[in-house]
Amino acid sequence: MTTILRGNLIHAPALGQLECLPGGYLILEDGVIAALCSRLPEQYQNSPVIDYGDALILQSFADCHLHAPQYPMVGTGMDVTLLDWLQKYAFPTESRFVDGAYARQVYHALARELVDNGTTRVIMFSSLHTDATLILMDELEQAGLWGYVGKVNMDRNGTPQLQETTEESQRETLRWLDACGQFHHIKPILTPRFTPSCTDALMAWLGRTAAERGLYIQSHLSENDREIAWVRELHPDCQRYWESYAKYGLWADHTVMAHCVHSDAQERLAMREANVLCVHCPDSNINVRSGLAPVRTMLNEGNWVALGSDIAGGDHLHMMDVITAAVRTSKLRSLLIDGSEPLTAADGYYLGTTAGHRYFGAGAGFAVGDALHAIVVDDSGIDTMGNMNFTDRLERALYRAKSEQIVAVWAGGKQIK
Amino acid sequence: MTTILRGNLIHAPALGQLECLPGGYLILEDGVIAALCSRLPEQYQNSPVIDYGDALILQSFADCHLHAPQYPMVGTGMDVTLLDWLQKYAFPTESRFVDGAYARQVYHALARELVDNGTTRVIMFSSLHTDATLILMDELEQAGLWGYVGKVNMDRNGTPQLQETTEESQRETLRWLDACGQFHHIKPILTPRFTPSCTDALMAWLGRTAAERGLYIQSHLSENDREIAWVRELHPDCQRYWESYAKYGLWADHTVMAHCVHSDAQERLAMREANVLCVHCPDSNINVRSGLAPVRTMLNEGNWVALGSDIAGGDHLHMMDVITAAVRTSKLRSLLIDGSEPLTAADGYYLGTTAGHRYFGAGAGFAVGDALHAIVVDDSGIDTMGNMNFTDRLERALYRAKSEQIVAVWAGGKQIK
User: Residue A376 sits in which domain range?
Assistant: First the structure.
């Protein structure tokens, strides 16, 4: 079936590069992009067109790191640092997800808010609870989202209410993986919480399981000084944090590592060599006082970097806020640390869209052959200037648009808002 | 007339100090706070009560620095630094306010958005246009806001479209001041844009006019390194930026100085000695790459500090966003510069409310004898936790609440939303 969308197309085929097609056409065949064009080709002259008028048609967002069970506590507990924050706020909140009804209520609301804000792909942590994780996957799938979701593994340094034995962690992981076949566009990803949360035995088992089953892995890396020192104590044989994953086979193609605030040149090289995705979470890194990640440096070196809201260390689920936070953070990095070139709005848009969608095998920008992931932004309600060019309108949308300006959302070729 | 509001009262009588009255009563006589109480006193048992149920009744916000004519460009031009930003974006945008119809449209929208977001008092820059300034004051007054508004003076270093002669600046300032008597709760404040924008003759005239007419003064101070160097070139006799105001009588009780990012101990002392209000604008200072102001240090030293959105250097008009930006900024200041104690959510709430309302003669928190400035926040729509204490609910509101959660706004004892 042919579907044609018309509007002001703005996409990011490469870092720092925007392509605008004012009043352009997106031609879909069964939800898959067949062509982008400035004029409607002859053969489609009689096809119906969904005309979005003067609205912007942008790429939808990929949120590549967030903790679903921390959604209820967004915007609380912001006055402490990472390790205290985990013990006092995050772990007690996550432990409530032993209750399936509570999980259903929270995850339904989370899925709705993601869609409302134009996020269509996620790479996400659940809690350690198998049943709640399946509920989360179900809610995301029902909302039309695409993603990777991980039941968390943690068999040490949790709380009495939030910890598994090694055996439980393995058994529950297998039970969870066996149940994931029911989902079509939400896939499992192995999720050791972070090195301090997993015994060596569990890490080794996860590495073997990833290899045997062809699963991707997500975790945290070099977020905070105290955390890094702790990992060094736990793994005195590892020169750097990443090696505590690598030695168990958890450092592989498409491994996702959140934060990398303090990753040095060696660790960044190891990421490039393995094709590890670094997820930059600017809000979270400031809220829990971790620091300013060297994003421009990583990009210049050729690292693969995308963005994450990291709720509830981060306080904004809306990826437009995360994009502008990344821009702001890069300005401070430049000013206070290393003089690196700040991210532009176009850079941020690329990191929040194309760079994350790539994890799912998508091409660059609105690429022919990809199922459509897009949002439609009606910026007339935030326009008091008139006559702005399209790159300024994109920038203004990133800074100013709320969910109400996002009037349509397409995911996997279907309209989900 | 007696009016009684009931709800969960949370106010900030002092820095870092919250007072909560769950299910408390605010008793107003002709809009003025007569009492705060946990139980309704006997004499009011038969008075009607406006019952806000489980909602939070908070202090409204005071936005102590913003540029009204830059409202149309919020969220654009964020990829350049201060002086370029002024020439390329801010000045061309402001020059459009020669058109009264345009001014009416923009200022009407601005006033509405301020009210919607719970800001009830402002200290504001207009442009240099007398008529547009009067339109702005009219729109603010009609919306029920309270504030100080300044016609900008700038007789050098502007653009051909946005500059006055010294004589014009004086004549138009007098014409504007003469017309301000028509307003009841919007007052004039003298507004030399910043030292580089005003000749010595104009500065001297403004200082004399302030003294003769008993007017307050607002301007910018020590925002950006290049700006500071420029002021030093223009006034080689001044050791520090503030002296370029002081030597013309523009450094006085209730002078408002935005930014003070780079104010050293001497300049901070000069502020305390004169009772100058420093307005911290965290978003703006990062967006235009000025730096991180030493807010905790200023507070510890006893300086008077309030908050400003500083649109359009800042990109958030909603003061809750400015408050959380101030908290984040203070964390980075602590982490990267001086180890100072970060601001807490309670500190931020105080700076965005009590500290700014004080400029208008208000007492601390919900003070008996003050006309009510308050907002009512219905946080049920952002609640997926249940059973939270009131300080956590305040923090979550600051991070999460949008205008739709602000279900009522009171200003000067009257409900304006």
Answer: 2-60+365-415
